[in-house]
Amino acid sequence: MGRCVISFCALLVLLFLMSFNLVSSKKVEVPDNLKVTCPSEVIYPKKKTVFNATMVTPPFLGSSYIGFKEALAFKESQGNYFTTNTLGYLGKYQFGIGTLQLMGVYSATRFLNDPVLQEKAFYTNMARNKWILRRDIDRFVGKRIRGVEITESGMLAAAHLAGPGNVKKYLRSWGRVDVADSYGTTIAHYIRKFSGYDLSYVAPRRNPKV
What we know:
The protein is an all-alpha fold. The chain has 9 helices and 2 strands, in the order ααααααββααα.
């Protein structure tokens, strides 16, 4: 009796599998609206992208303090926190160790590996330069020197480049005394390039520390 039950169950399983195979072998009709009748466009580039160095531009983040600092950082280091240039200037904003020491930062290694510290140092240096140049800001903003309108942001960018003392000399000589960094970038160039940003966010401070 047991053998009959086992044989009967095996027969049922065999019949089930055969019926499944017959169903799956039937031709399935694809609806007309799902049929592909012409080549479709691919979503990957058909040609290799050619890099053009002249197309590299900083991200535009508006005319606020953030837009200013990111544009300046892009000019200095293309926004790289961990770079050191051939003259030993450090980080995203290319600080010299002498300037950092004025703000209480004495370890170049720590500074170079700490983006938060670099951001604090940049703001602190802007506040320091704004204090030093406060009278010149009141006197010269809105005036033109050699065809270039003087703005607060242009002055502070130039102070980051060459120091606030050299910016004072440039303004008070009406452009006759214009220094350049080791790569040939002048105060006049920075004043023109970084004009028109709103830096009211930065409060002037005397001898600030990070």
